[in-house]
Please model this.
Amino acid sequence: MKMQSGKGDPIVMNYAMKNPRVRMEIPTSGKENMVGLLDWEKREMSMLMPGQTMYMVIELKDVPMVEEVQKAHDSTTLEKTSETATIVGREATKYISRDGKTVMELWLAPGIGSWFNMSGGNPMKPKKLSNWEREIIAKKLFPLRIVGFDSKGKKNMTTEVIELTPQKLDDAMFLPPPGYTRFSMGGLLKGLGGK
Model:
């Protein structure tokens, strides 16, 4: 998946799915990738800490359950259009999302797997999902292309799947590696004299 903001170089991230799990690998300025291991059933993400044999677990309280689709649908302005395109060999339908003056063009396809947006969030405190994000997660639609526009109609962000390769994946890919220990902020504070 290739992400391009209005500034800087594009970032190519690897995104692997084996429901109910997702693995995201995002390049960092160092030599190692930031790795997020998402478990939809547990509603949590394990973040591998680059350069260390530790991981931290973040609860994702804002991830919608299927029964929450209608609530999100009632308060979003996600509009399905009749326009379609073939992206990496899959048919995607164009949707438009409006949030105030911000407009997003979303090319969504069913039957691919679960999607989660890690961009713009602090791994220690994940960002709150927008209504359109909640709706496409709950409806199991996958964005093959996202184009964002600012209040003046200028394109300011693009994310697009550039390769989609169905293959068998080992369950171990979606778990912290053997030898990694769970990092606990509570343990750190206790070691510093906290209670």
